[in-house]
């Protein structure tokens, strides 16, 4: 391996109207890292390099992925590095360590409604998840920070959760937050009292967890060379493996729609899996 060689990544677009026969539409001519997606939009940015987040994201209308007219980067999101969307609100962290809430009723003109300084310039905010009145943010040199966002005019930090290792991803459901750390452990944290978050369980995934999605009582994780792992989290204290699928080289992402699981592999492309763990009703 040439250690001086810089890796470059691309995003491919697939037409999955027929999940059993996906069509590769080619590379996106935009930023190569998927931050989040909502409705028919994808939020993209440049890859992390040289110990720094690149500033700014682009929003792509995926109804027309091959058109050069549907990628836009309003100045209001030029500083954003991570984002999640709930309804008509976008929650984001910025390169200068601010927490933003944006009204995205008109996606081409997002309006900042909250700017909260997280302090500690130079921190690396790896991810954000929002459930009900709280935003959970993972920070490389802290662990997790918890913000009460119930009153947008008065956002407050109400708790922190310290970690011995580096957090890389998180997702939340009800009163529990699932945090993936650098060496492959999944920490389950009870945040029913946000002022005193408490670890209640740990699951060893074997390899670093890249992406996570929760559906019902199941947590779907992409875990690098270990592939897709599915955990039963009905008892958050004792999650256990119920299914897995190895893609061949290095699993980078996972997404879910109805009974179909879409898993990306760095060399082998897209895998479409079907699982009876997922309900078939109410599919769109």
Question: How would you characterize this protein structure?
Answer:
- Helix content is 0%, strand content 51%.
- The protein is mainly β.
- A four-stranded antiparallel β-sheet has the order 3-4-5-6, with no helix packed on it. Strands 7-8-9-10 form a four-stranded antiparallel β-sheet, with no helix packed on it. It has a four-stranded antiparallel β-sheet with strand order 11-12-13-14, with no helix packed on it.
Low-confidence runs (pLDDT<50, min 5 residues)?
1-5
Distance between termini? 44 Å
What share of the residues lie within helices?
under 10%
Main pleated-sheet profile: 4 strands, antiparallel
**Structural class by SSE content:** mainly beta
Strand order of the largest sheet: 3-4-5-6
**Gyration radius, to the nearest Å?**
18 Å
Instruction: Give the DSSP E fraction (strand runs of 2 or more residues).
Output: over 45%
One letter per element, helices H and strands E, the order comes to: EEEEEEEEEEEEEEEEEEEEEEEEE
- Total helices: the number is 0
> What is the overall shape?
globular
Quantity of strands, as a count = 25
